[in-house]
C-alpha cells in the first residue's frame, strides 16, 4: 500500500475497483471491481459513495482543482496589484490553521478548501508583490514563477500518465524520505539562523542555496506524482463526488510549496 508525502492524502482509501480514472495503467476506462472493505474505509475516514451519492470522477477532480487554483491566482494578483503586502503574515496564519482543520478532520467542505486557497493566494501575492517592488531586477518574477509552476504541474502529469516514472512502493519510500530530509534541513537552517548569520547557508543565495532550492523543486515536483496516484486511487475506489474538494486541497498544498521554491530560485538568479 502506497501513501503520499502530502499529508492531505495519507488517509485516502486503498483497494480495487472504482470509476473512470486517468490511471496510465488501465488503458482508459476502468470499471467494476470489488467494493470497499468496511474496516479499511472506516479507518480512512471516508467511504464509498452511498445511495443517492454520485461516485467521484476525473472531471470532478479537474474542475475542483481548477477552481481552487483559480481562486488562489485571482487572490494573489489582486493582493500584489493593490500593494497590501502587510496581509502576508495574517494570510499565512489563516491558511496554516485552515489546512490543519482540513487535514485532521479529513474535511471535504468546499468553504474551508476555498478559504485555504484564497488565504495562500493572498500570502503568495503579497510576498511576490513585495519582491517585485523591491527593485527593477525582480519585475515580472511573479509571472515567471506562475508559468514555471504550471509547467512543472503539466510536465509531471504527463510523466505520470505515460508511466515514464512509475509510482512504486520503493519510489514512494524514497520520496517520503527525501521530503522529511528537506523539512529537517529547513528547520535546522532556520534555527541556526538565530545564532549565526545565514544559518547553514541554505537560503542566502550562495551556490549551496542554489543547489538546495533545486532539490526542493525536484522533491515538490515528484510529490505531485504521488498526489496524482493517490487521487487516481480515490476515483477508482468510487469515493463520493464531494471528496474532489479534499483532493483539490491536497494538490493545492503541493503547488503552493512548488511556487515558493521556484520563486526563491528565480530571486537568486535575478539578484546576480
From TrEMBL:
UniProt cross-references to Pfam families, sorted A to Z: BaxI_1
Keywords from the UniProt entry: Membrane, Transmembrane, Transmembrane helix
Transmembrane stretches, start-end: 61-78, 84-104, 111-131, 143-162, 174-196, 208-231, 243-260
Record keyword Cell division present: no
InterPro entries from the UniProt entry: BaxI_1-like (IPR010539)
Keyword Transmembrane part of the UniProt annotation: yes
PANTHER family recorded: CONSERVED TRANSMEMBRANE PROTEIN-RELATED (PTHR41282)
Name of this protein: Bax inhibitor-1/YccA family protein
Organism: Pseudonocardia xishanensis
Amino acid at each position: 500500500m502506497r501513501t503520499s508525502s502530502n499529508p492531505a492524502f495519507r488517509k485516502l482509501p486503498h483497494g480495487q475497483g472504482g470509476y473512470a480514472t486517468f490511471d496510465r495503467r488501465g488503458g482508459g476506462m476502468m470499471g467494476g471491481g470489488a467494493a470497499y472493505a468496511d474496516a479499511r474505509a472506516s479507518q480512512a475516514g471516508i467511504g464509498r459513495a452511498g445511495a443517492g451519492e454520485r461516485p467521484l470522477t476525473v472531471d470532478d477532480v479537474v474542475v475542483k482543482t481548477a477552481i481552487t487554483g483559480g481562486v488562489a491566482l485571482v487572490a494573489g494578483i489582486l493582493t500584489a496589484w493593490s500593494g497590501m503586502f502587510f496581509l502576508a503574515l495574517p494570510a499565512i496564519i489563516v491558511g496554516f490553521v485552515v489546512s490543519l482543520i482540513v487535514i485532521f478532520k479529513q474535511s471535504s467542505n468546499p468553504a474551508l478548501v476555498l478559504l485555504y486557497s484564497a488565504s495562500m493566494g493572498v500570502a503568495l501575492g503579497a510576498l511576490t508583490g513585495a519582491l517585485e517592488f523591491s527593485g527593477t531586477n525582480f519585475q515580472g518574477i511573479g509571472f515567471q514563477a506562475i508559468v514555471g509552476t504550471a509547467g512543472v504541474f503539466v510536465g509531471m502529469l504527463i510523466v505520470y500518465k505515460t508511466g515514464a516514472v512509475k509510482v512504486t512502493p520503493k519510489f514512494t519510500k524514497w520520496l517520503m524520505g527525501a521530503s522529511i530530509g528537506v523539512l529537517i534541513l529547513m528547520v535546522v537552517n532556520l534555527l541556526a539562523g538565530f545564532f549565526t548569520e545565514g544559518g547553514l547557508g541554505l537560503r542566502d543565495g550562495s551556490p549551496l542555496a542554489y543547489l538546495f532550492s533545486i532539490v526542493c523543486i525536484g522533491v515538490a515536483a515528484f510529490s505531485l506524482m504521488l498526489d496524482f496516484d493517490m487521487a487516481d486511487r480515490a476515483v477508482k475506489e468510487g469515493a463520493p463526488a464531494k471528496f474532489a474538494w479534499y483532493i483539490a486541497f491536497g494538490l493545492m498544498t503541493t503547488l503552493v510549496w512548488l511556487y515558493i521554491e521556484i520563486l526563491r530560485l528565480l530571486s537568486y538568479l535575478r539578484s546576480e
